[in-house]
Amino acid sequence: MSAQTPNADPAELAKFSDLAHRWWDPESEFRPLHQINPLRLQWIQSLAPLQGREVLDVGCGGGILSDAMARAGATTLGIDLASKSLKVAQLHALEAQTPNVRYREVSVEDLARERPASFDVVTCMEMLEHVPDPASTVRACAALAKPGGWLFFSTLNRNPKSFLFAIVGAEYVLNLLPKGTHEYRRFITPAELATLARDAGLTVSEFTGMTYNPFTKVYRLNDDVSVNYIVACRKPA
Questions:
Q1: pLDDT of residue 173
Q2: Domain-embedded: residue 69
Q3: Handedness of CA 69, 35, 138, 2 (dihedral sign)
């Protein structure tokens, strides 16, 4: 992918840009991201402590995870191709006086050519199911990690349960997400993601699942990867 043909779907970028002003409202359409962010951060920290690390957050959106990783002691760069979301992230960093975080509008493929092997930790959360070529994104993330670096990818499994929970339930019944947020055909199974990671030269370390209880309204990390899941990978030293 080149700078002229970024690995991005214009309709997906427009979808999130239209909601940009809502990113930091914890009661908005982005409420699930605010609720799961502490869980994700804790899991990342358990494997790759962030203090003093150079961290890249790919597809950072409004900066919810980027901001949290910076506050955990990392020097953080968040990248995205949705201009409005990035402006929201930058404004929030100024208002909240978040240290050591900055944002750039650049594709992960272009950044990989510019700064290969530059980051101790690379995160790519809820992005792979929104790009035309997930393999390209994983390869670029792998290229950006330093030898021995950690990479974290989260996405949605593809099976009848995930269709029922992530689309019918989350978007149409519980209204946790805006209708049309996800397309089932773009979901990625853990086996497929593991293959993409290995093809990019990464070692798959472990998976964790994320579940939501609609009655208690509580998210938890556990071994159930049937809907939402995160995979941790390592770049060989």
A1: 55
A2: yes
A3: negative
Average pLDDT (31-55) is 93
Q: In angstroms, rounded to a whole number, what is the distance separating the alpha carbons of residues 185 and 158?
A: 8
- Domain span at residue 53 reads 10-234
Q: Is residue 4 part of a domain?
A: no
In a domain, 3, yes or no: no
Is a pLDDT exceeding 50 seen at residue 73? yes
Task: Give me the number of domains the chain comprises.
Answer: 1
Give 171's DSSP letter: I
| Of 29, 78, 28, the residue nearest 57 (C-alpha) | 78
Q: Which CATH number covers residue 225?
A: 3.40.50.150
- Amino acid in position 102: R
pLDDT at position 234 over 80:
yes
The pLDDT score that the predictor gives to residue 87 is 92
Q: How far apart are the C-alpha atoms of 52 and 48, rounded to whole Å?
A: 11
CA-to-CA separations, 232 to 8, 10, 11, in angstroms, rounded: 23, 28, 29
Q: Are 200 and 134 in contact (CB under 8 A)?
A: no
The whole-angstrom separation of Cα 144 and Cα 149 is: 9
Cα(225)–Cα(229) distance, integer angstroms? 5
Give per-residue pLDDT as tens, 1-16: 444 467 877 876 676 6
pTM for the model: 0.88
Q: How far is CA 176 from the centre of its chain?
A: 18
Token output for 154: 């989260």
Q: Which two tokens stand for residue 186?
A: 């773009």
Q: Tell me, what's the pLDDT at 216?
A: 80
* Angle, vertex CA 86, rays to CA 85 and CA 89, nearest 5: 90
